[in-house]
Design goal:
- By secondary structure, the protein is of the alpha+beta class.
- The chain has two helices and ten strands.
- The strands form two sheets. A seven-stranded mixed beta barrel has the order 1-2-3-6-7-8-9.
């Protein structure tokens, strides 16, 4: 919140590999310009998560974590004060300013359950002609997430605690 008690809003902008864009208006909770950001969004309707058995209920809080030096973003989903899951989106060219958080979504996602169980999603949607640099980013992100999900969970729980 700002000094006057107003909520600071920003835009999250996701660009897909096909060039299409999706934007959301989010509450800006934390920003270290050019380094990291945390945004908050509350789901206004139920949302089943395609490819999984998970369905997010209306009212679920999303604490979205972004870093300029990591090949992924993470949506930390919280309902009734408890973590539902962590959704890691493989991403490149993350741009972090107070006006917007923007990134290139590289399609592949990893659902991390609170237990540490992992589900890699959407690999089958990658285009056959995907640029080698994107393939490398995906491989790097998967290696980082898959080899240490418990460390990522601990970090996200610690970083999310002030915003629950």
């Amino acid at each position: 919140m700002s000094e006057a008690g107003r909520v600071n809003m920003t835009t999250e902008e996701k660009t897909r590999l096909d060039g299409s864009r999706v934007t959301w208006s989010c509450e800006l909770l934390a920003l270290e310009a050019g380094r990291r950001a945390v945004l908050r969004y509350v789901l206004d309707a139920d949302r089943p998560l395609r490819g999984t058995d998970l369905a997010l209920a209306a009212g679920t809080i999303t604490l979205a974590h972004y870093w300029s030096d990591r090949p992924y973003t993470v949506y930390h989903w919280i309902a009734d004060g408890r973590t539902v899951a962590y959704y890691c989106s493989v991403a490149e060219t993350t741009e972090l300013t107070d006006a917007r958080v923007a990134y290139l979504d590289l399609t592949v996602d990893v659902l991390v359950r609170p237990s540490g169980a992992l589900e890699i999603l959407d690999e089958d949607e990658l285009p056959a002609d995907l640029a080698p640099r994107h393939r490398k980013t995906i491989a790097d992100a998967l290696e980082r997430i898959v080899t240490s999900p418990r460390a990522l969970i601990a970090e996200l729980e610690r970083e999310s605690r002030p915003y629950r």
